[in-house]
Predict the 3D structure of the following.
Amino acid sequence: MKKHNLKTMISEEEVEARIKELAQQITQDYTGKTLHMVGILKGSVPFMWTLARYIKLPLTMDFISCSSYGSGTTSSGVVRFNKDLDEAIEGKDVLLVEDIIDTGRTLSYLVPMLEQRRPNSLKLASLLDKPSRRVCPEVQADYCGFQIPDQFVVGYGLDYDQCYRNLPYIGYIEILEG
Ligand code: IMP
Ligand code: MG
């Protein structure tokens, strides 16, 4: 980890309020259905938990693990598949939950793979979106918390070298020279 400063981008209150809004929208959109939330480990866990708490629907959860990042602050470009789902998703209304869409490589790999398993529906919720960094333009969130500029962010599940996932707000990292 390089020497760095940590600054606030989105406060805890703002993050919580926005997730609550998304949860209300999801509750409306899926009325009468059972939602199957699929979190992408590890970054999605805090977002998934807050979202789930405010969704007023029968709901099940599963997790998948997949990463396109090395240990630094830039994507390696190679998607590594670490852990598959525990349960089949055929016929289910699946909501894929991600912490951030950056280049879109992770999801351009995962979404078609999950579509092949024939869920009844498959939508994507992402806490953050960095549209200026996209290399896979087909990757779009159906539910997005915040669009952010091209800065490396941490907190609310997002890490820098596995640290800061537990921050209750979204911060950004400023790498110090030398
Ligand atoms: P993508 O495949 O480039 O869209 O990358 C998505 C994954 O990269 C996310 O699930 C994060 O784990 C990680 N990532 C992308 N941008 C950031 C960031 O600013 N901070 C921390 N992790 C990030
Ligand atoms: Mg991730």
About this structure: The radius of gyration is 16 Å. The domain at 12-149 is CATH 3.40.50.2020 (Rossmann fold). The mean pLDDT is 94.
